[in-house]
Request: fold
Amino acid sequence: MPLLTPEAGLVISYGYLWHHEHLGARDEGHKDRPAVIVLAVHRAGAGAFMVTVLPVTHTPPETPDWAVEIPAPVKRHLGLDDARSWIVVAEGKEFRWPGYDLRPVPGTDRYDYGFLPPRFFNQVLAAFDGLRGAGNARLTSRT
Reply:
């Protein structure tokens, strides 16, 4: 199975553990889902990449600023379903690449769906940075 070098904007298949699941003492998420890499930093001393991802969900956000809706053309480009989806910018995970939560994309031998278009990725990153700067984005380590 081909494994790409992690890069910002790459959408991967990931066993995402929501923060509320973590608080409920779960060790793994109940569902594999697409997740967007927003940061990938190579740590030479550790010999690995540290990656930050944001989850994709079909559930509309409770607060509009907590997620960015994925436009239908972007979903088609990535090979995702036609249902409305959002990238949650109010919570994310940090982990050492590739990590045990990386999953193959269903029906393929790949771990990624492809890259978000740069303009849309910048919109997601700005929304995430805005919430994080205001102290309203939660990051949980999965290392």
In short: The chain has one domain: 10-141. The first strand starts at residue 10 and ends at 15. Residues 91 and 138 are 5 Å apart (CA to CA).
